[in-house]
From TrEMBL:
Acts as a magnesium transporter. Coiled coil: none annotated. It comes from Desulfosoma caldarium. It is found in: Cell membrane; Membrane. This is Magnesium transporter MgtE. NCBIfam families: mgtE. SMART domains: CBS (SM00116), MgtE_N (SM00924). The chain crosses the membrane at residues 288-308, 357-378, 398-420, 432-452. GO terms for cellular component: plasma membrane.
Amino acid sequence: MLQKNPLSLHELREKISARDSKALRVFCKQEHPAAVADAVAALSADEFWAVLRHAEPPQRAEIFSHLDEDLQVEAVRTLPRDELARLLADMSADDRADLFKRLPENMREAVLPALAHAEREDIRRLAAYREGTAGAVMTSDYAALPPHMTASEAIEHLREIAPDKETIYYAYVVDERRKLLGFVSLRELIVAPRHALVGDIMHREVVFARVDDDQEDAARKIQKYDLIALPVINGDDALVGIITHDDAMDIITQEHTEDMEKLMAIAGSHEVGVYLKTPSWVHFRNRAYWIIGLAALGLVSGIIIHSFETALAQMLILALYMPMVADTGGNVGSQSATVVVRALALREISPKDALRVFLKEFQIAFLLALALGVLSWGKVMFLSQGSDIPSGYNLVQIGAVIALALSLQVVTAAVIGAMLPLAAAKMQWDPAVVASPALTTVVDITGLLIYFGTAKLLLGL
């Protein structure tokens, strides 16, 4: 049962100072582990452990697992080796391996001998997988059953191992070599006849990931097939772990953060929840590379404008509508790039679909160009009535040229916005990186060329 009035930070410190063990024990027991983690995160290391030592060992490990990764490392620096070993032993296999990989080398070497052999081997095995793969995010705490076991024996077996497993709602059927044969749900075991064999009631068609698969691909499978967990197998088709739905949510959140930051040309590690903890210099370094490079490329826009300086001097009205053309092109290109990058991320399309994507975006852009062309012509006619127009020209003619240039810019920007991410994917670059603001710079340049080229050709400037 949750507390109706959780302890505030001030009250928590008062309980620590008063050595009120009962209140701290109740706080750790009745609050959700994530809420306890949030409360103790602002405490010093000594205060932190003064609270967590009042929690039962499994509960303490769960609370600790909800802490920020950097805070976990800082907190265990003050722990004696044996206490750190006990904490690691109580943590789930994937959380334990993640913490171990972040520990300084001297702490890893010191704590390994204090762990049981099975836990040492489990850490070494999980920590060996490359970051970003399914193997690196899986847990080895899964429930496995042999095919010759009866339903009643399987239920009894799951009852015994449940405290040490991440989930028992799916049990994976394996042979003597741990080769994955199928899976069975707890519900199916309960409703099956007591003497039915697991091998007879299991599902043989299993959705799985391999240890070297990208972690996002594995998470997408959990999302697509509404799985509680996804089995992970090695090159010999042996079951080595599972990825649970909560880990999949974390992966998808991390990938969304990465895609969003790459979409805005931000470099770096793209971790979740580190904005305030990251030094300003690191933020500068992550952002400056692309921004400065694109600003330098933006000098091309200045060169184009300078080359058409005479045309602008002859017809000043053209300068008034340059921002409209540039902004419209940027907006249309960004929309196209966003939907294409998203479709690539969800595996809806691939570079092989370039022609289909081109035709679809061209059709969309053509309709947008018609609507925006009429709108821009009306805008010129309304806002520029009475403007100083050079002899030999009229406002209707100039408005039509501006509308045509804008329409061509819309079509061009949409096509560029769609093709750039596909080209990047074809070259095995990250499509999000080229989408924006690189796209904006490219569209600005092409827009100016279209705008002045159209005016020069049709108005004879």
